Amino acid sequence: MVDGTFFDESREQSQIKARIVAKYFFAWVHVIKKFSPRIAYIDLFAGPGRYEDGTTSTPILVLTKAIEDEHMRGALVTLFNDKDAANVGKLEKAIAELPGVEKLAHKPQITNEVVGDEIAKKFAALKLVPTFFFVDPWGYKGLSLKLINSVLQNWGCDCMFFFNYNRVNMGLNNDAVREHMNALFGEERGNALRAKLPGLNPAERESLIVEELADSLREMGASFVLPFAFKNEKGTRTTHHLIFASKDFKGYEIMKEIMAKESSEVNQGVPTFEYSPASEKFPTLFELLRPLDDLGDMLAKAFAGKTVSMYNVYREHSVGRPFLKTNYKRVLAAMEAKGRIKAVPPADKRPKKKGDVTFGDGVVVTFPK
Questions:
Q1: Which residue from 260, 257, 245, 23 is spatially nearest to 145, judged by alpha carbons?
Q2: Which of 167-171, 241-245, 272-276 shows the lowest per-residue confidence on average (mean pLDDT)?
Q3: Contact 331, 313 (CB under 8 A)
Q4: What is the pLDDT of residues 309-332, one digit of tens each?
Q5: CATH of the domain at 207
Q6: Measuring CA to CA, how many Å separate 54 from each of 4, 124, 363?
Q7: Do 261 and 299 reside in the same domain of the chain?
């Protein structure tokens, strides 16, 4: 259940979450509009639209941007839902008060339903237009692999959801909520996960739980999964994650750049993919804290004897790791300067920018055996 004070003020973490979702949605629209005349945004736990302090939450941010953009005004279809009738009433009022809302070709749909298997079945039976699907439950009730897959199974659809790690961690061994846990991980994987947890320290436990969740998503076809962690006020433990899931590398690439800029720490140009009020690091999720110093050796081993373009090095190697495209360019240029690789065209034949040799996407790299 959502605590009655949850929407009283816009905490910094909530603002970061809203920014990540909104930034990705706008970037996603820019890409997907080339392929589809209609696009959709679905939020099944939409809330009241505004916090009590007046700060706008994600639904209003999305609609405001759509009103300002000529293409989005005509293309965007939105569905907002909340099981709390009071939140629905506030959201309806907040949307109605938006300047220019009447310019939207498709009036926002607002429903008041409890999210569960019935909604998942309803979506699974539909052929959806390209959709960005945001699922933000306060706890975990209503969040399931079936629900996520009901949207992701369609072309051009991406999903981001709130994963309440703190409550899931406590619930995994609680028989009273076993059904909800199995809905998240699948019954077989959930049982196997419970058997692996005893004896693990908190960091190992977190890594295992998030990795198992990501593997469940990949089995459904979401090849690209990216978690962003939020720490408690003291920075001593993780409270929750935002989990992004996509079938396309382009979506993964866009989201990675957005999450990188929202990270509270950057080490050697490599983001931590976490927000910590205390700016303290925590152990790796999918190798997400490997230092840049290691990247050259990692590439030399992974691509030994191969000839491949810079972009394909980045595309093949970056998934599940924290490194950005700029990190790969920097490290490959350093490897070339040290004679560890050969590049075509070579450094002296490539254009320079601000005194630095560039390492373009199309530069072809040969790694020694």
A1: 245
A2: 272-276
A3: no
A4: 999 999 999 998 989 999 999 999
A5: 3.40.50.150
A6: 16, 36, 50
A7: no
Q: What tens digit of pLDDT does each residue of 94-122 get?
A: 999 999 999 999 999 999 999 988 999 99
State whether 149 and 243 are in the same domain.
yes
Question: Using an 8 Å Cβ cutoff, are 320 and 287 in contact?
Answer: yes
Q: Structure pTM?
A: 0.85
Q: Could you tell me what percent of the chain has a pLDDT over 90?
A: 65
Residue 351 burial (CB count, 10 A): 8
**Percentage helix, strand, coil for the chain under 3-state DSSP, each rounded to 5:** 45, 15, 40
Q: Which residue has the tokens 């990270």?
A: 263
185 C-beta neighbours (distance < 10 Å), count:
22
Size of the chain in residues: 369
CATH number at residue 361: 1.10.10
342-344/266-267 β-pairing: unpaired
Q: How far apart are CA 193 and CA 187, in angstroms?
A: 10
Number of domains in the chain: 2
Structure tokens at 174: 């609680």
- Does the residue 153 lie in any domain? yes
**For residues 78 and 108, is the Cβ–Cβ distance under 8 A?**
yes
* Cα–Cα dist 41/24, whole Å: 12
Domain-terminating residue out of 275, 309, 336: 275
State which of 275, 306, 338 marks the end of a domain.
275
Residue numbers of the domain that contains 260: 12-275
- Per DSSP, helices labelled H in the chain are 12-32, 58-68, 70-75, 85-96, 117-124, 145-152, 165-171, 178-185, 187-196, 202-219, 249-262, 295-302, 310-317, 325-337
User: Phi/psi zone of residue 151: left (φ > 0), alpha (ψ -120 to 50 degrees), beta?
Assistant: alpha
Do 224 and 251 form a contact (C-beta atoms < 8 A)?
A: yes
